[in-house]
């Protein structure tokens, strides 16, 4: 009888502000902002996910954008305060990690 193999951790593929690529282990149920913050990727999450600051702005790789739930109106309003927004911009505090996002690719923009 074979033993079940431990499940491999799911990962977020991040390009940081300097263009360096990282693969971060992601935790089910955490906000992407929390994962980026804990790995010290330059995301502070100043407001703790209450949509008051937009300091957790990320740009989702276009091939992943449609796989995320669409941004709510309050997220769109918060991003209106940013100096530069891309078509796939999101606030990482609004993306709840689940294993079906394994391999999600995003970029942390220069300006927040």
Properties at a glance:
globular, 3 helices, 112 residues, single chain
How is this fold's topology laid out?
Layout: E1 11-15, E2 21-25, H1 32-38, E3 57-60, H2 62-65, H3 73-79, E4 89-91, E5 104-107
Low-pLDDT parts are: none
Strand content: 15-25%
User: Which class best fits the helix and strand makeup?
Assistant: alpha+beta
Number of alpha- plus pi-helical segments: 3
Element-level helix/strand string: EEHEHHEE
CATH class: Alpha Beta
**How would you describe the shape?**
globular
Rg from C-alpha positions? 14 Å
Mean pLDDT: 91
Helix content class: 10-25%
CATH topology description: Ubiquitin-like (UB roll)
| Measured distance between first and last alpha carbons | 53 Å
Q: Could you please describe the fold and organization of this structure?
A:
The chain is α+β, with helices and mostly antiparallel strands and 112 residues long. The chain has one domain: Ubiquitin-like (UB roll). Helices cover 16% and strands 19% of the residues. The protein contains three helices and five strands. A five-stranded mixed beta sheet has the order 2-1-5-3-4. β1 and β2 form a beta hairpin. It starts with 10 loop residues before the first strand and ends in a 5-residue tail after the last strand. The mean pLDDT is 91.
Task: Offer a concise description of the structure.
This protein is of the alpha+beta class and 112 residues long. Helices cover 16% and strands 19% of the residues.
